[in-house]
Structures are given as C-alpha cells and as structure tokens.
User: Fold this.
Amino acid sequence: MNNFKFKNETSIRFGKDRLETELYDAVSQFGNRVLLTFGGGSIKKSGLYDRVINLLSGLEVFELSDIEPNPKINSVRQGQKLVKEHDIDVILAVGGGSVIDASKVIASSKFYDKDPWELVKDSSKRFGINQLPIVDILTLSATGTEMNAGSVISNPETNQKLGTMGPNTPAVSFLDPQLTYSVSKWQTAAGSIDIFSHLTEQYFDTGASDVTLGMIEGLYRAVIKNTPSVLADPNNYDARAALMWSSTMALNGLVSVGTQNGWTVHPIEHELSAYYDITHGIGLGILTPRWMKHILSAETVPRFAQFGRHVWHLTGTDEVVANQAIQATFDWVKSLNVPTTLPGVEINDTTHFQKMAESAVLVGDLNHSAYVPLEVADVVSLFEQSMTNSGFVD
Amino acid sequence: MNNFKFKNETSIRFGKDRLETELYDAVSQFGNRVLLTFGGGSIKKSGLYDRVINLLSGLEVFELSDIEPNPKINSVRQGQKLVKEHDIDVILAVGGGSVIDASKVIASSKFYDKDPWELVKDSSKRFGINQLPIVDILTLSATGTEMNAGSVISNPETNQKLGTMGPNTPAVSFLDPQLTYSVSKWQTAAGSIDIFSHLTEQYFDTGASDVTLGMIEGLYRAVIKNTPSVLADPNNYDARAALMWSSTMALNGLVSVGTQNGWTVHPIEHELSAYYDITHGIGLGILTPRWMKHILSAETVPRFAQFGRHVWHLTGTDEVVANQAIQATFDWVKSLNVPTTLPGVEINDTTHFQKMAESAVLVGDLNHSAYVPLEVADVVSLFEQSMTNSGFVD
Assistant:
C-alpha cells in the first residue's frame, strides 16, 4: 500500500428535514453576509428557494443564479464580482455538482485579483490564498463535490473543461435525499453513472489495496442495486438515500487512499461535454464499457475478474468473468434507459475526434499516468467504437 | 436510512517513515509541553522510544509509562496529575489502543478537578470541558481508537470495564505498518479478531444500509484474507498495511452511519476481561460464533445469508449459507491459532457467569438496544456454550 495523507473536515448533515433546525447556525457561524448560489429555476419551482430564504432571515443575502450544468467560467467571474463587492463571509450553494463546483472557485476568487480562469488552469494558485467557507444543500446525487475539494469548470471560449482543486472541502453539507425526489429519470441515471465512473477510476488503479477495493465493491453494489429502484419509484427514500451517500463516499478521498494512477474516462468524457455540452454522466456511460474492453489484457484480467466476482457475482474463469463483467456494465447502463452510443446523444460528426483525443491525452496525461496508458490513437478509437454498439450484446 | 451527522477531523499520516519529516511539526503546532505516554518496555526495546525522543528535541517532554492492556483508571489518575502539574499542551501517545484510550481520558482530565473515573462513568461531563490535543503513533492494528473519540477504561476495584466518549478524535495519527512487524502472533490475531468484531457489531444492526453493509463486507474480506498472511510472514508490509487501515476504517464512524442498535458482543466480552484480564480480542473470538448461532432466526437469516454470500463467497439457500457463514467465522478464528473456548484461556470457573451476565445486560442495555435483545439468561447461556466447542465442526 502506498503512503497517503487523509483529512476531511466536512461536517455532513444527512437525512430528512434538518434545514429548519440547523441551516441558520451552520451558515451564520461564518458571518452575516451570505452569497446564495443556485442554478436555474428548479429550486424556485420546488419551494426550496423560499424555504432557504426564510431560514436565513436576519442575514444579508446576495444572490448568484443561473449557474448552468457543466458550470462556465463566466458564472465564476460573476461570483467573483459579487463576493468582492459585497464582502461576502460565506457562500451557501444550493444545487448539484455544478453549483457547488462553481461556488468553490468563487470562494477562492474573493482573494484573487485577476481572472479566476487562471485559478482553474493552475490550482497551485489557490493554495497560496484564502478561501471562503462553503455551506451547501445538495439536490443531486452524482459528483461527490459535497465532501471534496475539487471542481470542474468549462470555458466555452477555449473549448476547455478543466478540473481544479482548492485547499478546503465544504464546511457543512446538507444531504437530504428528499430533495432529490424531483430529479428527472435522465439526471438520476446520469448521476448514478457518474458515481459508477468515480468508483471505476479508483478501482482500476495499480495502487488500490484490498481495503479500498473492498469498500469500492460495496459502493458499486449499492449504486447498481438502488438506481433501478429509484427509476421505478422516484420517491423511494432509502434508495435515494443510498445513492446520495454512495455519491459522497465515492469521492471524499477515502476509497482513493494509496491510488497512484490518473483518471482515464473522465478526461475523455470532458472532451465530449466541452465540444457538445452533453450530460457528463451519459457520456461516461457510453465510454466506460468501450474503455474496459480496450484495456482488458493478460495484465488487467485479474482486476476485471475480481470486479466481476465481487460486484456482479459472476463465476467462472478469470477471462470469462472479466468479459461478462464488461457486458454487465453495458447492460446496466442500458437498463437505465439512456443512450449507449454517441449518435444517441446526437454526436454524428467525427471530425473533431482527433483534436478531442489530443486534448484528452494532454489534459489527463493519459499516455503516462493512466491505469493503462492511452495514446491519442487509442482515444480516437474509443470515440469511433462509441458510434455503434457493435462488440456488445445489445 | 436513518439521519446521521458525520465529521471526523483526524489527520491521518499513513505509511512508511513519516515520523522523521512530520512528527515534530505535528506535535509542536500545539505547544512546547508534551506528555509522552506509552506502555511497557516494548517501544524501548524496539528503538521507537529513542527515535521519538530524538525527533522531539527542543520540546519539553514529560512521561507517563506502564499503561497496561485493558488500561486501568490508575494510569489515567497518574496522567491527570502530570498534565496539571506540568501544564501540558499536547499528549503524544505511542502504542496500541490501551495507550491511546487512556491518553484521551487524560486529555479531558486536565480540565477536571475530581477523580477521572467520574468522567468515564459519565461521558457527558467530558463534553462540557476542554480536551488536550492528541498526536499518536500507532503500534497495533486493532481498536480503531486512532480515528475515533472512544476509550475503554477498566477499574479493578469495582470489576468494571466501561466505554467512554470525548468530544474530539486524535488530532494527528501516524500509522506506519512497519511498527507492527514486531507484534506477536497472539496479539496480531487478537487485534484482527477485534477488527472483525467491530465490523460485526455494526453489520448486524437494523439501521445498516446498502452503503454501510457493502463497505463493511469489503473490510471483512480484507481482514479475513490478510491476517493469515501476516501470521505466516510478520514482515509482509502490504498485509500489515491492510490490517492497519482496516482497523481504522472499521471504527472511524463511517461504516456506522445510520446504525441504531447498541453493541452486543463487546459488552459481554468486557465482563470476561474485567473479571479475568484476558486479551480482549481472544474473548471476542470465543464469544462471536456462539452469539451468531444464538441469534440466528427466521428474522435474522437474510442478514446472515448476505454475510455468507458477500463475505465468505458461499452459495445456496439463505439457511444453508447462514449456517455455513457462522461455521466459517469459527473456522477463521481457529485458523489463527488462538483458543476457541473459555477453558482455553484458563477460565474454568463458572460461578461468576450470573453476575457477569447481569452486568453485561445492564451496561450494554442488551435487553433493549441490541440487534437481537438478550436477557441475562441468554448471556449466561453464551458463557456456558463457550466452555466447549460442541455445536461447531471442530
């Protein structure tokens, strides 16, 4: 097992109806001047916006709305202006990964005088400066951002979608599974595939240990089992709760301790989202089974066999189990009623594949740090294989 | 899933040879006046004592030694005297669970003027007062105390062994698997059984969720697999590392989120240790398979079947798998070359069973809060069943 440091100070408040008794104190402990960040109108429609505004009564609340999926640097720029202008003490982010991700960079940008895209391009700049505390109310189970220090920000001007890390995780995260009841089937499926992919990026790693592998296998099973339950009954509390807590556990740093490879499928998908603005999780669901097939080899077959036995309960030789596990992954994605090819998300144009692949390899350092190193031609091939379902029992 | 709060601020420093670069800063960040706590002579024999003293050069170091296994309230009383007399800033605990457990209560006792046994009897008294920060260097994989706020303290005058909680987990925990190379086979086995039991106390809980069950199953497998590897080769780094990190993960609060039952086997074992001063983990290994058999019923068989399938890879009907899983637990304990009966640890005298059972039920609230409630007669029966291996394939 590799050496590692671990510390995570986020205070998790999981479960039903905690906002009424805990939100005010959680926010006001950091000051009176609050920037409330959120996305489109969904929290207004659901009544959550009014509920939060009521609970913050007595504090000075400023607002940044319209943070989009695949959050854009322009939202961060607007946020930077607001936190400086109003000398904000604390950010309350209400939404999914996009709102919280953008808020984390805004939290740093208060203490930075240049364009915050510089902070995204070079995370080290964020470690030298202060960061506003963030309280969040999560409304989507997917990214795990509620208990980590990462963000992913897009810049449409440069067609870039980059990951950035800050020094701090959110101070307090409210996780009420009821707030995800209204999440559409499409977004629920995409969120679950995102969780599945986070687990995959950490499971297929040469530094993973018996301890982290075992925990990841348990999280895989929880996601695989509970996603169909939620799609069948969106108000199934326990299934929503299992997805919500799995999303957090999948990416709070605990199951990645000791890992040593960079992520593979995420940087490749980020090219799809950056070029075509498709839903991140859907892109991951298309790419993942192809990537698995592509890297299956004599060297990797034992890990895939363990994945098949412990996650999918398959039996047989390593090779049989490995191949069945990849097909099972494809089948699971398909069972969630989401597209399994690029044309399914209206990407029919193959002309950007070369440029996207070059960028993915560069940004993700895929030819050096990936579990199985990939060259540009490998990534182009993955995009091409994603044009049809050939190779899978469909 | 039940509502829960989770926050754990311990900074984990896991792996080889970190002390030289990190120990001084980790300790001195809290002040200059250090109480070094440890057990018998083993850290002197191994050279760890000299190494630590060297690294603390420049700080004022006071010492409390001879903290025994099943740490006694008298050690805490001595510690209380020292932290007050020398106005200690930080405790550096070097050892296993006993040393760290005692240190946590000493950390509270600086801010308490009466006998610290009062703090053990009533944890709520510790939440109203301050607590010194603790840095620890763990030398035994077992209790998980390195990342939680609990302690177990014995009082030989009253034959009591009680759990107590404080407000804070250790500030910094150094976990170097190499420091466990010298742990005897007996203590290694006992430590692993202790981890197994912690997992069991949280797995067999009516509030456990798919997420926590899945993570626990992974931790079970890591412990089951790596303990024999360590017994065969005490210097197997990866196996020692897997046990060390499993011990921490098993009891840092993460796999217990949402649980709602009290623990069962621990309070029963505490009576054995309190009366006969036997090794805690060995007592747990004797009691656990009997307890499993005792509570197996139509109601509990599904959980035991999941335990059998996901942990022991058994197949068949629920009932068959459940029974085989209990036998597998017995077999695993026996395979570690430790006694599997009370006479094996020289407890031949049955006269205290009634009194011990009464105390266990009272202290553990077993007749109300246990996963399957136990009355005094049930506990007496568990002790009696532990006199022989009848009922198990031996």
